[in-house]
Task: structure prediction
Amino acid sequence: MEDKEETTGEKLVSFGREINYLRVSVTDRCNMRCIYCMPDNVEFLRCEDILRYEELRRIIGVASSRAGIAKVRITGGEPLARKGIGNLIVQLSELSTIEDLSMTSNGLVLAEKAEALKAAGLMRINVSLDTLDAGKFRKICRAGRIESVLAGIRAAYASGLTPVKVNVVVMRGRNENEIEDFINFAVNENVTVRFIEYMPIKQSDEWKKLYVSRDEIIENAHGRLDEMEEDEEDPHAPARYYPIKGTSLKAGVISPVSHGFCSNCNRLRLTPEGRLLSCLLSNDFVDIRAIVRGGGTDDDILEAFKKTVEMKGRKGAFVAAGSSMHSIGG
Ligand code: SAM
Ligand code: SF4
Result:
């Protein structure tokens, strides 16, 4: 069923960048406890404080039909841990103004859900997997089994949620020696692997011990990668791609710390409790939940998006941000 809404809107622009991408964190809860993401003494939001699906549908509907938001990524916490997430996907896939509907998941329960997600209208998925070693997986993720995630990646590929991208946060002393193993994995499974520099979100200087730079990640690929591609398919994509020698595949490196990509940033973020953020690193936000629960009109929602874009700086800075990753959604 095609939604009746049409684009009547305007474009959101900040410092020459067209803002057309919204990352929506649907929950701060998770079925894993990754060491780099989930704080130990975390206090989760109350259920009533989290945006309901009909509220999300309304906000995203206005953003896409009136403010030019054409790409939406569902994230979390773990989005597949929120009950009924397939219903939200169905509702969003009916919005004709959304061109790209994707998800980021830890893959733990993906094997049993991939087909239904594809049928609901999800287009593609990124799965986070930081190690190929079962013992290390237990230490990094502190819950779940690596076999479940591997089965999830294979089910996503088989269901056509492609390209399947596998996100690897590279950490010194933990997995920086697995770069080549992940390149082999990508070739064997026909997926795109992307290595991510560890980011200092709400952390002390401790992060410096774990941080591995893009240059070092490439070095650890031991000559398996060609020179970085100059021609980017999508100039807004945070990853820079390197062809894997002897294959038609590419490996990506996302390097927000060593090579910030703020000048091309096209995204806004919505947290589970309805804070609309202009940047992952921003402490300022517009409370869009207050607008939708306070009887606000669609015009008010549009204004909230415009105001948030006005708050977007030319460049973000890695200072302790207001929320941690498990809440903003990476
Ligand atoms: N639970 C889902 C998952 O793990 O894919 C979605 C939410 S998670 C917060 C989104 C992404 O943020 C994941 O790829 C995760 O690896 C990444 N992430 C979390 N903390 C990070 C950090 N400190 N530095 C770099 N990436 C991080
Ligand atoms: Fe959960 Fe994803 Fe954070 Fe890991 S990175 S704790 S899977 S939200």
